[in-house]
User: Fold this.
Amino acid sequence: MLYTVDIFFVNLSKFFSSMQNKNKQLLYTINSPSDLRKLPKKKLPQLCDELRQFIIEELSTNPGHLGSSLGAIELTVALHFVYDTPNDLLVWDVGHQAYGHKILTGRRDVFHSNRKYKGISGFPNPSESEYDTFTAGHASNSISAALGMAVAALQNKEYDKKVVAIIGDGSMSGGLAFEGLNNAASVPNNLMIILNDNHMAIDPVNSGINQYLLDITTSKTYNRIRYELYRALRKLGIINEAGKAKLQRILNSLKATLTHQSNIFEGMNIRYFGPVDGHDVKGLVRILEDIKDFKGPKVIHLITKKGKGYKFAEEFTTVFHAPGKFNKETGERIDVKSGENTPPVFQDVFGSTLLELAKVNSKIVGVTPAMPTGCSMNIMAEELPNRCFDVGIAEGHAVTFSGGLAKQGLIPFCNIYSSFLQRAYDNIIHDLAIQNLPVVLCIDRAGIVGSDGATHHGAFDIAYLRCIPNVIIASPYNESELRNLMFTAQLKNNGVFAIRYPRGVGYQYDWQQAMSEITIGTGRCLKEGEKLAVLSLGPIGNTVEEALKTIDDVAHYDMRFVKPLDKKLLDVIAKKYTKIITIEDGAIKGGFGSAVLEFMAEHNYCREICCLGIPDRFIEQGSPHELYTEIGLDVVGIKNTIAKILKA
Ligand SMILES: Cc1ncc(C[n+]2csc(CCOP(=O)(O)OP(=O)(O)O)c2C)c(N)n1
Assistant:
């Protein structure tokens, strides 16, 4: 009893001291950016510190994207201080760096629900807040979207409306970003682009654009002098906007002559300012105030440190991009998956199998668009660095580049997350399938991914690949099947061979078995039964297996291939069963179940068929378990469906 009373008082005193802290903190006085704009400028560094601590504290127990948000704190505070948000529009690229933005725009008190089921989204989401101006999650779209808004502002005669795109150097490597820049140079607009350069994507980057940005960073003194010269001349009234453009051109040619290097942005007639220290909040406010009213498109190039202000995140940048739970004092990560006591994550099975195959087959190469750690291709890159290519955040290019490699006799294993592969649709059709090129498309994160939510669920790949001729689509039941499919794919020229597998841990401890060939287009019967047949595709079949443990007389088939379908097996099934359920971790419309329905219709089988999968709506964030429960793909949901069909 005494003990309980003790705990009560300890908790009470903790509660009061946290209330006192909150009362002392500036952050708790900011309920919207208009509160922020009332602060004196000198208070902004304090606000940045508090915001940073808030994010570290919160993310240590409620996982999310840490490093990028910490690196963008000063920028976020400066933007909301200078711009009249939400009337002015901020467009965040990817949006994983926008936690500070969420907290300052009225979501501080619900931030504990970040990325949780029914909570707030981990990315800017216009249906969540008027401050989130555009869907974010996939990289490199901010310049195009913001340019559209900036052009619309002029068309709508909203001449005071400002539009700002905020893009990282990693996302700047995407082709879409360049398409936006190219267009920004040719259409009337007053777009502001903030290039947040931390020399990192998730992994370190060494692309052409990054090398280039590093080079202009080193010509810092020149840019600084030039900016100060503009300022002084403008203050003295010696130069106006038109004169400034002329002066800029003269200085640019002078600089190009002196340094043998021209500025890519200025070469496109987009004014360039920088490089600027992205962690000096007062300096940022000053430069934004100075140039926000300049006409025409402009870029400010910020230099920032990913993970800024949290030493573990600064040091172990890739790990702390999205570290999961961690001990805030020691930096130790908690609950790390794929340990000795769990089966491996599928991505690690992919990574180590690729290395194993590549050591035997010298034609194999790996291609990844900026996800070497994310897909575990780093396992191969460490041993065979010359045979792995990180091509930047450029999925379309990754596919076409793989096509080129394949055309010259190599066997590329091109690994792309399902939702990001959407970016490369035409490349798959035009650059691979028409030529029947042997590229192994390893589609990671296929199916429900969990807390990243609607932009990241790998829902559509089966549907969008199934209609393309010359494409094989397979999904392994478990880890050893993944290995067998990868082994099969490199044995001979099969054209495009897509292998889809999910995020997260698999099912086998003894997964590293000798590999064997799987006959393309064959499924298998896992359990006999008379009353009904369940046809599953991929690892979701393990949930079916679990559900069937307590149900008698229901058969289970692991179909393995969506294309080509195992027609022989389907004939047997159609002849034996009148009731069939298809189950897939993908969109129902156009997916594996649709393929089975097409088969039945083509062959005049009139059967009662129920298709389970991801329904025809966007699924928000949550744990995979919560989301599978919501859409009836958990053990209970599958059992309920079977019971309903058996009763009917
Ligand atoms: C189209 C697409 N491909 C890949 C990703 C995965 N991804 C998320 S953040 C990120 C790195 C972004 O780097 P950068 O823009 O420099 O931002 P930073 O994290 O360094 O702040 C990548 C590759 C994505 N979100 N979208």
Summary: The pocket of thiamine diphosphate is lined by residues 68, 71, 94, 96-97, 138-139, 168-171, 198, 200-202, 306, 370, 393, 395, 420, 423 (CB under 6 Å). The longest strand covers residues 579-587. The radius of gyration is 27 Å. Residues 48 and 276 are 18 Å apart (CA to CA).
